[in-house]
Amino acid sequence: MIAAVSWVPKGASKAVPEEAQLPSKEEIEEMIKSGSLEEESEYGHSEDDDEDMGSEDVEQIDEVSQALAVADALGKSSKSKSSGTKLDDIADGLKELDMDRYDDEDEGVELFSKGIGDLYYPSNQMDPYLKDKDDEDSEDLEDLVINANDAVIVCARNEDDVSHLEVYVYEEANDGEVNLYVHHHVIIPAFPLCMAWLDCPLNGGEKGNFMAVGSMEPSIEIWDLDIIEEVQPCLSLGGINEDKKMKNKKNKKGKKSSIEYKEGSHTDSVLGLAWNKEFRNILASASADKTVKIWDVVEGKCTFTLEHHTDKVQAIAWNHYAPQVLLSGSFDHSVVMKDARISTHSGFKWTVTSDVESLAWDPHTEHSFVVSLEDGTVKGFDIRTTKSDQFSDSQPSFTLHAHDKAVCSISYNPLVPNLLATGSTDKMVKLWDLSNNKPSCVASRNPKAGAIFSISFSEDSPFFLAIGGSKGNLEVWDTLSDAAVSHRFSSYSKRGKV
Predict the structure, then answer these.
(1) CA of 277: how far to CAs of 113, 264, 314, 481, in Å?
(2) Domain ranges in the chain?
(3) Given a cut of 60, is residue 119 above it in pLDDT?
(4) Which of 39, 332, 431, 468 could make an SS bond with 442 (beta carbons 3.0 to 4.6 A apart)?
(5) What is the pLDDT of residue 258?
(6) How far apart are CA 192 and CA 329, in angstroms?
(7) What is d(CA 327, CA 197) in angstroms, rounded to the nearest whole number?
(8) pLDDT tens, 155-211?
């Protein structure tokens, strides 16, 4: 399944991503000294276990643990941690294999010589076999390059218990043909639930190309999309304290040990993320632990924790025009707005009829937002009608019975005012014209993606809608190809970047 989709702005990705560097022998030794490779691991054993096994068994397990610990340091395993690794033996073995020269031919060995001297070509271009190989290598290198005009889409995907980010390139040829392919994968350790792209320069420079990922774990991982074959996030926010981690298993007295979290961490799944485009070091998160947290990604720590909801917080969004204003929606059937510009502001609260699935500020006005619900409805609100007290009794601007099942995702078109897309577990994607607070359906489509979990309009090509769902297939709908959409909104296409 695809749980979330996100567009990367054109030109934000490096033309040729870097390859991840494996740690050196010295770095591995430093990990061991610092305690990063702990003595007890999922593959190791504790002293209590030694009582139930012979010395030979213990010795064999120690050898396996040592090997897996080194594999973890080299990025081959994300779980194993151990100590006492035989670094010298492994280094000597790799040196003996000489993998860098594995394909080199041995001098003086002629397996297929005819005895009259082998024919050769003055250059690779004249050798038909090597020429074909060079052409293949050239094509592979060309596929690796991300051009400035290429659109990049990232999918948070789970398949066969493997979770990863798929980085797609959406390439438009001059003849109008479209090529959509996976550029590279990023393996992540936990089931992904949400994403947020950010360009805060965590690795130096003026801007970066990062994806924050929320998952079933309490931590938020931030991955550098310009590095391929990376096995570790460049930054983790919150999570379980590995230095003081105590496994959830029964001890001899039959009691379970507790989990200790890092300072400021969520204590349950992260369900929603929102990056602040104006204050680029700020990331907001919503969690099943009923809290909303504000993070400084440069400092790598939580700066504020908001506890204004009484149930899981599913969705969160910053206002486009007032970046200090934050909106959050919860399973407690409420939407709350907080304004950090006013220190005494206790927040405004709107009550809705069902669990909040998604919400979004209108990018064309600072006063309006929409919220989608588990019962298939979409409601619009205007904050100018809100009273001065915390609990607002103001009625929604409109209530739209959009789908037969939960509306998991909504997306405003960044170019066309009042054009909203909705995606539902009823497998349908619909486009709505919200003009004058009287919604009308412009187009609907079953993209064959299964239950729809995430949709997103592109900022660079505003009529392209990325769609992800339960079948795990990324779909891109050129909504302008629909006759009704083209008839009503074609005038905007001349002003946009399509």
Answers:
(1) 66, 23, 21, 31
(2) 20-103, 199-493
(3) no
(4) 431
(5) 77
(6) 19
(7) 18
(8) 999 988 899 999 999 887 766 678 889 989 899 999 999 999 999 988 877 889 999
Question: Burial level of 100, CB count in 10 A (0-12/13-18/19+)?
Answer: exposed
Q: Which two tokens stand for residue 271?
A: 């369900």
Beta pairing partners, 274? 284
Backbone angles phi, psi at 489, to 5 degrees: -125, 10
Nearest to residue 198, comparing CAs of 154, 134, 162?
A: 154
* Contact criterion met (CB below 8 Å) for 199 and 280: yes
139, two tokens: 């094509």
Contact 42, 61 (CB under 8 A): no
On whether the CB atoms of residues 467 and 4 are closer than 8 A, the answer is no
Q: DSSP letters along 282-314, please? A: EEEEEETTS-EEEEETTTTEEEEEE---SS-EE
Class of domain 199-493: mainly beta
User: Looking at residue 369, what is its pLDDT?
Assistant: 97
Instruction: Compute the distance between CA of residue 449 and CA of residue 331 in angstroms, rounded to an integer.
Output: 26
Bridge pairing between strands 2-8 and 151-159: antiparallel
For the cut 50, the answer to whether the pLDDT of residue 39 exceeds it is no
pTM: 0.75
**Type of residue found at 381:** F
Q: What confidence score (pLDDT) does residue 88 get? A: 64
Taken in order 328, 217, 233, 236, is the CA torsion positive or negative? positive
- Which of 38-47, 354-363, 455-464 shows the lowest mean pLDDT across its residues? 38-47
> Mean of the per-residue pLDDT values for the chain?
81
Region 454-470: mean pLDDT is: 95
| Angle of the 25-34 helix axis to the 55-73 helix axis, nearest 10 | 120
Nearest-angstrom CA–CA distance, 203 and 230: 14
Contact 23, 76 (CB under 8 A): no
